[in-house]
Design a protein that fits this description.
It is found in: Nucleus. This is AGAP000400-PA-like protein. One of its GO terms (biological process) is RNA splicing. InterPro entries: RNAPII_TF_IWS1, TFIIS/LEDGF_dom_sf, TFIIS_N. This protein has 282 residues and is mainly α. The chain has a domain of 168 residues: Conserved domain common to transcription factors TFIIS, elongin A, CRSP70 (Transcription Elongation Factor S-II, Chain A, Up-down Bundle). It is built from 11 helices and no strands. The longest helix has 51 residues. It is elongated, with a radius of gyration of 39 Å.
Length: 282
């Protein structure tokens, strides 16, 4: 190898080290900025709760909303935000205030849209952050707008498929897998509530539409464990041995008489014929 080749190899190695160093510095810088932003969001949520407790307008979150959203919508940083537990902070922002009022409509709308644009969220992040409960609360709240309830419902449906490892297309799931999933859910409910063994309790504990884990399809029917030994007493006091004939209406009575006369005329017509031609109509 010539001296020129050795020099080129050294230059290439130095550039590679510099590029790697710049990448590491950029990642570290992004991590610091993300941590600072999340701390600022957490502090704003705490201050809003304190202001609401004192009967004052909660304006801290709405004051920094524009700046926060300008950073959270950056696609190249969203995975880093998820790794820094941004869902925990968003849960605080969506949670109702101490007086049970919802956060500002602009805050709820922007966060729901942001969550819909996020990349696929790992189920461990979903369970740990509690974001599903906050979104479900908005989905069921009577004061929430219809558009936000629809957004929340779609988020819950997508996250439920992620948690239960369901296919995005229910029709693509084999029937055996759907049955096994239903049996698994039922066994989990029975383990959680062992004292509830009747079908009434099972139905009350079943997943309702809109909850996490619900699916838009017919559920597999389960056999009832009830044993019926007493026949209910009938409230109808009638003699079943007496069968009443159906009363004919006017049209049916006329039709019956007409058919009866027609049969009589057809059976007696040949017997009344005369060889001389009497009683014949000309």
């Amino acid at each position: 190898m010539s001296d020129f080749d050795i020099m080129l190899a050294r230059k290439k190695e130095e550039k590679s080290r510099r590029r790697k160093r710049r990448t590491i510095d950029l990642v570290n810088e992004n991590d610091d900025l993300i941590a600072q932003l999340l701390q600022k969001m957490q502090r704003a949520a705490e201050e809003d709760r304190q202001l609401n407790t004192e009967g004052k307008p909660a304006t801290k979150k709405i004051a920094i909303l524009k700046h926060v959203m300008s950073q959270l919508i950056k696609k190249d940083l969203q995975l880093a935000f998820l790794e820094h537990d941004v869902l925990n902070v968003l849960t605080e922002w969506l949670a109702p205030l101490p007086n049970k009022t919802l956060p500002c409509l602009q805050i709820r709308e922007n966060i729901l849209k942001l969550l819909a644009d996020f990349p696929a969220i790992d189920k461990t992040h979903l369970k740990r952050s509690g974001i599903g409960k906050a979104v479900m609360y908005l989905h069921k709240h009577p004061d929430e707008t219809k558009a936000n309830r629809d957004r929340a419902g779609r988020l819950i449906s997508d996250w439920a498929r992620s948690i239960f490892n369901l296919s995005a297309d229910i029709k693509a799931m084999p029937r055996e897998e759907r049955q096994q999933l239903d049996l698994l859910r039922m066994s989990r409910k029975r383990k959680q509530y062992p004292e509830q063994t009747t079908s009434a309790h099972i139905e009350s504990d079943a997943i309702r539409p809109g909850n996490i884990g619900s699916t838009h399809r017919a559920r597999v029917p389960m056999p009832s464990d009830k044993v019926y030994i007493i026949r209910p007493k009938s409230n109808i006091d009638t003699d079943l041995s007496v069968v009443k004939k159906k009363k004919l209406n006017r049209y049916e009575a006329c039709l019956k008489n007409f058919l009866h006369k027609k049969r009589l005329n057809s059976s007696c017509g040949n017997a009344n014929l005369s060889i001389e031609g009497r009683n014949l109509t000309l």
